[in-house]
TrEMBL record:
Domain Sigma-54 factor interaction residues, every copy: 157-386
Domain of life: Bacteria
Species the sequence originates in: Paraburkholderia bannensis
Pfam family, one: VpsR
Database matches in SUPFAM superfamilies: CheY-like, P-loop containing nucleoside triphosphate hydrolases
Protein name (record): DNA-binding NtrC family response regulator
GO MF term set: ATP binding; DNA binding
Keyword entries, A-Z: ATP-binding, DNA-binding, Nucleotide-binding, Transcription, Transcription regulation
Keyword Amino-acid biosynthesis annotated: no
GO terms, biological process: regulation of DNA-templated transcription
Length: 438
């Protein structure tokens, strides 16, 4: 078996280890498109791990297991080298030996009786983790910490805080596999940039990257836009049109705002993800296309699944790997870097030469909550550059409502102490008029 065939055989396999395997579990996993490999004999050695072996395991821990039984299972789970989910009965995990087994060998555990969705979520997440582990055990070509300058060159992103370092590592790992990636994060955090970075660093980099915003296209047109249509398929379909999926053949399709995809369209997309084929609207001819799917949304997709607004089976298909874009307010000094970057980007639009930000402006940038994240920051700096009347941008120029308490207090104290003008007090409090970046 060649490597890619072996990898695809390993995709979506679950090793189900139980002394008494339940049909209900096998049926549930099979219905969710997992291939189930059942093992009842843990005395026998598991198959030697290969690229085609399952990466995820569900292991039912026997009630009142003796230390010998747990010892035998321990040997088995170590040899099988999969990411394990333990299945236990109520109260079973309270026993010291079982608890230790779970802590030492399992990614998660589920207690019976459990909602079916919980089992599928746990298996899906374990699979995502196992895929990431595979990718990270491949030879590393990057040093541990990435400077902002390198991040800009390699990922087209500014930032070097811890959360961004984690993101860069996630992007590198995801880029090495063709598995679907789901990017979550608040609006304006740069999810589209992350999708592009994954594509640009993947073996598909020179092949098409096609993006579609599922929220921006009317429900009635989205399906035709994604899958294409034949001439006369519906009123107004005057000629045949290739859909975005076909346009992205061999490359990457970025489904932005997937959380807003109408339910009817979700079913068609699911079929494509399961079978790799689809039909253009108005045609019965199946078209097979190889496309790597990256999706993103600012909505809480797990909550949408729980509320019945988003199909659970589609969620599991899309969310094999997960990458999170951190909100700007949690990115510390990255905020200053991004503000400086925006200043460089937009300074041509200023009425006169701008030298930089004052200390009180930087403090205000750090204190503000940035609900619209990087997009809001860029807009704020751009607006300020156009409106600013002095060469140094101050907190007042930025017009951010949240005046930082600490700075306000400092200004007040300085003013009381010196009985000087507000400007002098501000200079004493934080060098408000002194440019920090030239
Ligand atoms: N780390 C970053 N470095 C440089 N620019 C960034 C960074 N993060 C975001 N941006 C910029 O912020 C803007 C918003 O980014 P983007 O459209 O990717 O956000 P988003 O998370 O996809 O938003 P939405 O959920 O609203 O679609 C873009 O102009 C993008 O270039």
């Amino acid at each position: 078996m060649n490597t890619s065939a072996a990898q695809s055989a390993a995709e979506r396999q679950v090793l189900y280890v139980s002394g008494n395997p339940a049909n209900r579990i096998v049926e549930l996993l099979t219905a969710a498109a997992w291939q189930v490999v059942v093992a009842t004999d843990t005395e026998a050695a598991p198959d030697t791990p290969t690229k085609a072996a399952p990466r995820v395991g569900l292991i039912e821990l026997p009630q009142d297991a003796t230390p010998e039984q747990l010892g035998a299972l321990q040997k088995y789970v170590r040899r099988a080298k999969v990411t394990w989910i333990a299945l236990v009965q109520p109260g079973q995990a309270d026993g010291a030996a079982t608890r230790q087994f779970i802590v030492d060998h399992c990614y998660d555990f589920i207690t019976s009786p459990y909602p079916e969705q919980s089992l599928l979520f746990a298996i899906g997440h374990a699979y995502g983790l196992a895929t990431l582990r595979d990718a990270s055990s491949a030879p590393q070509d990057e040093p541990r910490r990435i400077s902002s300058r390198r991040a800009q060159g390699q990922f087209d992103m500014i930032g070097e805080c811890d959360a961004m370092q984690e993101l860069y590592r996630g992007i590198q790992k995801c880029a090495r596999t063709p598995a679907p990636v789901f990017i979550c994060g608040e609006s304006g955090t740069g999810k589209e940039l992350a999708a592009r970075a994954i594509h640009n660093r993947s073996p598909r980099a020179r092949l098409p990257y096609v993006a579609i915003n599922c929220a921006a296209i009317p429900t009635t047109l989205l399906q035709a836009e994604l899958f294409g249509h034949e001439r006369g398929a519906f009123t107004g379909a005057l000629q045949q049109k290739i859909g975005r999926i076909e346009s992205a053949a061999h490359g990457t399709l970025f489904l932005d705002e997937i959380g807003d995809m109408p339910y009817s369209c979700q079913a068609v997309l699911l079929r494509f993800l399961q079978e790799g084929t689809f039909e253009r609207l108005g045609s019965n001819t199946p078209i097979k296309v190889d496309v790597r799917i990256i999706s993103a949304t600012h909505v809480d997709l797990e909550a949408a699944v729980a509320q019945g607004k988003f199909r659970a089976d589609l969620y599991h298909r899309l969310c094999v790997l997960k990458v999170t874009k951190p909100p700007l307010r949690e990115r510390g000094t990255d905020i200053e870097m991004l503000a400086q970057h925006a200043l460089t980007l937009y300074k041509k639009e200023a009425q006169h030469k701008i030298r930089g930000f004052s200390a009180d402006a930087l403090a205000a940038l750090r204190q503000y909550d940035w609900p619209g994240n990087v997009r809001e920051l860029f807009n704020c700096i751009r607006r300020t550059l156009v409106m600013a009347e002095n060469p140094v941008i101050t907190a007042a120029d930025l017009g951010l409502n949240a005046m930082p308490d600490s700075l306000g207090d400092a200004l007040h104290v300085a003013h009381v102490q010196t009985h000087a003008s507000a400007t002098t007090a501000a200079q004493g409090a934080g060098n408000a008029k002194k440019p920090v970046h030239a």
